[in-house]
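ok new one. same drill as before - structure tokens go in, u give me an amino acid for every spot. 463 of them this time. try not to just spam alanines like last time pls lmao
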């Protein structure tokens, strides 16, 4: 069948219009300055997916100066005329995209990069940023009123960055929803040790400096990266189950040990494998520094960081985070209970394992200790808000939620659920609704009412 002339002209016009629509949709545009997290709207970046960070940092404790060179390999998720990185305070001297100088501007904590040529959608590209200055730790109400981030110590620096301080020491897409692998190279004065994530690739002295190279080959959220530097007594080996272990302890704390950090780390890592599924990283361990100004510990990936020698229960909490928070990370910060509630519940499971108290009794103790008019019950655990995202209710009521779930669905289903969750979202990101759906699928029960009562509602739930 032949088309008439008018039909042919109409078809040509339609095709031309379609071409213009396609061309317009693929025209390069700027990447968004944030991923849209309601707690931190400008953290993370739109338009690309971070794949690998290559960090070179040189630190001088005498001046507190950091000089860095970061190369990020990423994949464009749209055609990009420009894109942003998160970087707080430090001075940028040069930016290159695919080895060619690129223009850049600064607006607050955003570094906007304009490559010489637009980046095509789906293209893998690299951006190298050379920068330096004196990193400033963050503070305020978010992390228990403590400073956090890049924190100077008597002999070096303690680096613990949750939730938004990784960009105080390297340019990044600083949100857990954009995970990547890492090579981290640290230059420090000779006699100091640089400790970071993953496994130690090399260490050597040259002149007045010591160089260390660490590689984290599993995807990692930016806030879990560290470059802690100082004098450390280091012990290495393997856990009884065969997992490599690296424990670094500040010798100043040598006589203050109330717990054997190495032994507890090894035992807890192996036990959590039995409960939560295979250990997700190449190495386990600990970094224990003398940093009294930081009254917290952090689940640094593969080596939790402790600002002093901490209790056995703190160690098992931070190691549980290797599964809940590190391997399975939150999509948005409002779901932080998926990290802290689970790690707190792990403390209850550890006491049960040790035979000191059942998780049921831990639940009753926490529930009974707080009257109905306590402010504790006024936190909505599923969305606690930015300045109270680390409130005690997120930890304790989050753990109570898990015990209430366990008693509803029974031990058999509950202890199938935990490793199923870590397996399903291994090295990825997840949210509360996904956990509820998985719990319902494994248990065969409708659980919306239970989770609504414990996670989404203010007030003390009736038992």
């Amino acid at each position: 069948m032949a088309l008439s002339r008018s039909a042919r002209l109409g078809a040509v016009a339609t095709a031309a219009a379609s071409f213009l629509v396609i061309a317009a949709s693929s025209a390069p545009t700027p990447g968004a300055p944030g991923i849209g997290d309601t707690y931190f709207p400008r953290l993370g970046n739109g338009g690309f997916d971070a794949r690998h960070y290559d960090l070179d940092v040189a630190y001088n404790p005498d001046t507190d100066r950091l000089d860095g060179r970061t190369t990020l390999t990423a994949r464009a998720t749209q055609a990009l005329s420009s894109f942003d990185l998160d970087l707080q305070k430090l001075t940028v001297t040069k930016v290159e995209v695919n080895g060619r100088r690129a223009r850049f501007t600064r607006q607050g904590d955003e570094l906007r990069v304009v490559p010489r040529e637009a980046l095509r959608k789906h293209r893998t590209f690299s951006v190298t940023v050379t920068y330096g200055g004196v990193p400033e730790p963050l503070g305020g109400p978010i992390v228990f009123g403590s400073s956090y981030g890049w924190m100077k110590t008597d002999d070096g620096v303690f680096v613990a960055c949750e939730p938004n301080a990784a960009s105080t020491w390297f340019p990044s897409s600083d949100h857990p929803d954009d995970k990547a692998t890492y090579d981290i190279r640290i230059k420090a004065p000779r006699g100091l040790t640089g400790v970071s994530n993953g496994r130690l690739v090399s260490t050597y002295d040259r002149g007045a400096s010591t160089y260390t190279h660490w590689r984290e080959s599993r995807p990692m959220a930016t806030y879990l990266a560290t470059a802690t530097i100082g004098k450390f007594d280091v012990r290495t080996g393997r856990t009884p189950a065969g997992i490599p272990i690296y424990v670094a302890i500040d010798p100043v704390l040598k006589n203050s040990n109330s717990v054997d950090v190495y032994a507890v780390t090894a035992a807890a890592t192996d036990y959590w494998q039995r409960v939560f599924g295979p250990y997700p990283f190449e190495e386990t361990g600990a970094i224990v520094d003398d940093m009294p100004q930081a009254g917290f510990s952090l689940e640094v990936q593969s080596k939790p960081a402790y600002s002093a020698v901490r209790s056995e229960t703190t160690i098992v909490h931070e190691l549980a985070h290797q599964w809940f928070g590190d391997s399975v990370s939150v999509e948005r910060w409002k779901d932080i209970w998926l990290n802290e509630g689970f790690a707190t519940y792990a403390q209850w499971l550890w006491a049960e394992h040790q035979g000191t108290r059942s998780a049921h009794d831990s639940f009753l103790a926490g529930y009974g200790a707080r009257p109905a008019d306590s402010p504790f019950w006024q936190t909505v655990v599923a969305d606690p808000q930015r300045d109270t995202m680390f409130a005690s209710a997120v930890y304790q009521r989050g753990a109570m939620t898990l015990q209430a779930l366990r008693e509803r669905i029974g031990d058999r289903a509950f202890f199938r659920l935990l490793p199923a969750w870590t397996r399903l979202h291994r090295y990825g990101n997840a949210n509360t609704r996904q956990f509820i759906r998985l719990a319902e699928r494994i248990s065969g029960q409708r659980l919306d009412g239970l989770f609504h009562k414990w996670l989404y509602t203010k007030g003390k739930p009736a038992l």
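The radius of gyration is 24 Å. and btw The longest helix spans residues 5-25.
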